Fold this protein.
Amino acid sequence: MSEAVSRPTLEAVAARAGVSRATVSRVVNGAHGVRDALAERVRRAVEELGYVPNQAARSLVTKRHDAVAVVIAEPETRVFADPFFALQLRGISKELTAHDAQLVLLLTEGRDDHTRVGRYLAGGHVDGALVFSLHLDDPLPGLIQRAGVPTVFGGRPGWSDGSRRVLYVDSDNRGGAREAVRHLAGLGRRRIGHITGPLDQTSAVDRLDGFRDVMVDADPRLIVESDFTPADGERAMRELLDRCPDLDAVFAANDLTASGALRVLRERGLRVPEDVAVVGFDDMLPVAEQTDPPLTTVRQDIEEMGRLMARLLLRGLDRGDGDTGRAGEAAVGGAPRSVVLPTTLVRRASA
């Protein structure tokens, strides 16, 4: 039997660098007050010996776990099928990796999962949480608030009681929707339908409001609710055509819904954009460039949204701001602010 290889210790690093154990601990844990020359000797000794800090011991000193929970309020079948989540997770992961922090992914399939997630967050395993795809009746915000975990939300929260001020990152959903519908109207389209997203999510509500800003007197039959999936986009498109056979344009609340709508239009023998023009929302390239025809859509920078969520959380943690998730728009002393990113219309062949 081979002998176990012992891990280098703080004492070994201190001996190699010719400094005290306390000096090594301060350097390894990122504390200040160590002269540059000594800190460089410690870092060189750490590298030469292959020393890896004991995370549990380090957490006792720094009060940080270098781990962030990413909570997606959707079932895993939805998360792994929708490229929106992959793009947002990529942005989050890049930012956390750049700060040597670990991503812990938590999904919620049902109410039992909400309890599990709340219990995990309250257990002190992570420094903070990034939460997105919330629905209006979701218990997660309350569970997170009770857990006392600094939090940044993806998307404008929909709480109406005004009692919680939160930090969030979102896109200009309403403005982007207005631009999409104005584009269709500018093409001379007059019977413009809207396939919404789930109206228990603020992004879908904001896009519907943007549609109504332009189509002030829109026939209610021209609005059909969907759930942001291709299959439900197909169902909603059939319903729209059955209600309004003279429809000449559609604004779909996301690209996946638009892809389903395009399939139904093709099945019905309708030409796009000659008979019916179609505009989506997101500009997810794996979808928008592969539809037939390629999709005109409103671009939001999904990866950047994820990156900014992580950056805002880490900035609050570095400030020692335990109220990160409740700081809202407060920016006293340079505290992070909520961010709303602009959107742009990307014109392709569908409209």
